[in-house]
Fold:
Amino acid sequence: MKILAVDTSCDESCVAIVDTQSWRLLADVVHSHVDAMKRFGGVVPEVASREHLKALPLAVEQALETANCSLQDIDWFAVSDRPGLIGALLVGVSYVKAAAFALEKPYTGLNHIEAHLYSPLLSTFEGGQAPAFPWIALVVSGGHTELFHVKNECEYEWLGGTLDDAAGEAYDKIGKVLGLGYPAGPKLDRWVRESATDSDRNKFAFPVARTSEFDFSFSGLKTAVSVEVGKQRMSDPRRLQIAASAQEAILEALCTKVREASAKLGVPQIVATGGVACNSRFRAVLREAHFPAPRHCTDNAAMVAALAAVRLRQGKLAPSEWTQTPSPRADFGPTLS
Ligand code: KG4
Ligand code: ZN
Structure:
C-alpha cells in the first residue's frame, strides 16, 4: 500500500510517500517559503497560502518522481487538516480531497501535532529503532508547546500546553527584537552556541513562569526581554548576554515541566520534537531525552505519512468524510472541543 501525505499547515509545502509493505519512505519533499517571508520578518498567512498554491503541485510531482510512481499508484491520501494557518491548510486539504476524489481513493485528515508526536517512529523507515513506549513527549514548535503522555502507537493523553505563546514564538520574537532577522530561532541558537560563555548565559535572571502543573507561559519572558533591550544602548556583548540568558529561561521552563511529568507519571522515557527540538542547547541540557533527527523535528510530511501508516497497521486508519473541513485549532486540551 502506498500512502501520499501532504502538510501545508504553516510555511512549508511538504509531500511524502510511504510504502507500508516494505516499510520504506519513498519520498520526502519539503519546499520552504523562507525566502518569500524574509522581507516581512515573519510568516504572513496570506503569502503562505499563495506560496502553497505555487509550490504544492511541484512538490507532489517531485515526490512522485523520486518514488518512481504516478498518482494512480497511490492507494490512500493523508493530509494535515488541523491545527495551523487556516488558508494554508485549505490549500493542502483541497488538493488532497480533489486528487482522492478524482482517483476514487480514500483520504484521511490528520492532526499535525499528533504527527509531530510520532515523529520518533520515522527512524523505523530507515531500519532504526524508535524509543520503547510509554513516553513523556513534548511538541515544541512555532505555534505549539504541548506535553503528552504517549502510551502506545495510537494512544496518548494530553497533559498540558502553553497558556499564551509557544516556545518557538518566544525564540522568534526575542531574536527579532535583538535584530537577528528571520528565522530568528535557529539564528539565535547558532549565535549563542558559537559566541556565548557560561557567564553570558547567567547574566540576566529572566522570569520562568510559575504555571500550574504541566502548563507553560512565555509571554512574560518576551516582555521582560523587550524591556531589557529597550533600557540601554545595545552593545554587542549585552545583546549576546540577553540572547543567551533568554534561551536559558525558555529551556529551564521546558526541562522542568518535562522532568516533573516524567517523575510524577513514572515514565522515564522522554521525547522532544517540533522545530525547537532542533536547538543545540536544548539537546545538550535535556541529555536524557530522545530527540528525532533535526529534519524530522521541523515540519515535514513524512511524519504525517508515518502516522497514517501506523494507524493502518493497527487497523485504525479511517477515511475522512468529504465534508470534513480544516481547523486552525488543535482539538485537544480542556479548553478545546
Ligand atoms: O515545527 P516547526 O518547523 O513549525 C511549526 O509547526 O511551527 O517549528 C518552527 C519553529 C520556529 O519558531 C523556529 O524558530 C523554531 O521552530 N526553531 C528553533 C530552531 N530551529 C527551529 N528554535 C530554536 N532553535 C533552533 N535551532
Ligand atoms: Zn509543526
